[in-house]
Design a protein that fits this description.
The structure is a homodimer. By secondary structure, chain A is mostly helical. Helix content of chain A is about 50%, strand content about 0%. The first copy, chain A, has five helices and no strands. Chain A binds a DNA duplex through helix 3.
DNA sequence: AAAATATGTAATGTATAATTTACATAAGTA
DNA sequence: TACTTATGTAAATTATACATTACATATTTT
């Protein structure tokens, strides 16, 4: 299932590059790229670290309403 | 890093057993047990499914303030 | 034009989330 | 007493999050 989130939006607002954000939360740039594109399903601990860096909450960055879930069949 | 959350609290409020909640979100009872105990670091998709079942948001169940993080050295 | 920065992505490897099977205990119930 | 229900946990396996290395393109800067 695809995983939209608002990481890219808030990262740019914070004037951070993928590399900087990735480094700050302890993952690689590639991992951050895939998370932004919704192609990885990050763990809650990593989501929390991203929240702390971007000064946002889980709901602000990662909440998806139940009706909006993208299942594999709809890609 | 240990992963406290309020899954157990809200599960009991919802009068669900571990088995029922696990089955409803598509994991095993054992996995749900470990998540409740903070010994697994679930993915955001699984967290969202748990939220939908318990009618709560990510912040209500999984938010942890940055200062409250338990690192492995403090266990 | 050349060099540096920012991002995308593919292939392979490693760490760990989650499964499966199984056994254990406590508490309620027939 | 036996039987069922709810939970904890351990060992072995599988699936997948994430790392590593590498190469690509577009944009900016010198």
């Amino acid at each position: 299932m695809k995983n939209h989130n608002k990481v890219k939006i808030f990262r740019i607002e914070s004037e951070l590059t993928q590399k900087e954000l990735a480094s700050n939360v302890g993952v690689t740039r590639q991992t951050m790229s895939l998370i932004e594109k919704g192609e990885y399903n990050p763990t809650i601990n990593l989501c929390l670290k991203i929240c702390y860096q971007l000064n946002k909450t889980l709901d602000e960055i990662f909440w998806i309403d139940e009706g909006e879930i993208q299942h594999e069949t709809s890609k």
